[in-house]
User: What shape does this take?
Amino acid sequence: SSFARRATKKILDNCDLITCVNHQMIDDYSLIANEAKYLYLPNGYDPSDIEAKNIELKAKEKNNIFNIVYTGSFYPSSGCDIIGFCTVVKNLKNQDHEAYSRIIFSYAGKDSKYVSAEFNKAGIAGCLRDYGLVDRRKALELQYDADLLLLITYTGDNPDIGKGVLTGKCYEYLSSCKPILMIGSKKWELRTLLESDGISRVFRANELESMTNYLREIMEMQKTQEICSRQERLKGFEYPNLALKLFEELTRRWSNTR
Assistant: This one.
């Protein structure tokens, strides 16, 4: 509304520095207030949380199981649902039941009832392993035990929506050395980084056949892929480096006012 725009402009005009977690916010707010006020400061991640030495994983035989993991929430009414992925797994079940029989979908989060209902509707409830709400450490353990991580940021029809969705979970996933199947905008800000491993892929929610083929292909790989080529490029998103970036910006601006 015009009132909200005026109020936002007044707030932004009175700021000395505005931090934004994605470039889309900078683009949007630059239409209201001076662009020089903005600092790109993404959510990032704490590297100590995800170092292998802090994750106690038990070696175990997987018996040819292919473990797909999703940790976090869904927001169906806001364009973040699991329906498309359920259709992909259902398609695989109909086309290649042997491959489907290998799949375990491990879910951890607050939306157990929703996930269970959608898996039941799709006729694939047999592959669901629901952990419910877990603490952060357990969520990281599940991520590190995955053969494939599922990341869903946007499942609507507008390609411009969702390109700036950069939650902390995105960075956890990217730093996990695991392949990632992402459902979201093809314009997603970190798409190039995600796909830089040559294996992870970003799909629109309506690309069901392509996702089904991708899932089949990645399951046919001879061994679980450990993708660490993203690590060096992720350093700029580590909390210590982000804190240093903010400190340097504040120091620069303070020096300019003296």
Summary: The chain is about 40% helix and 15% strand. The CA atoms of residues 88 and 155 lie 14 Å apart.
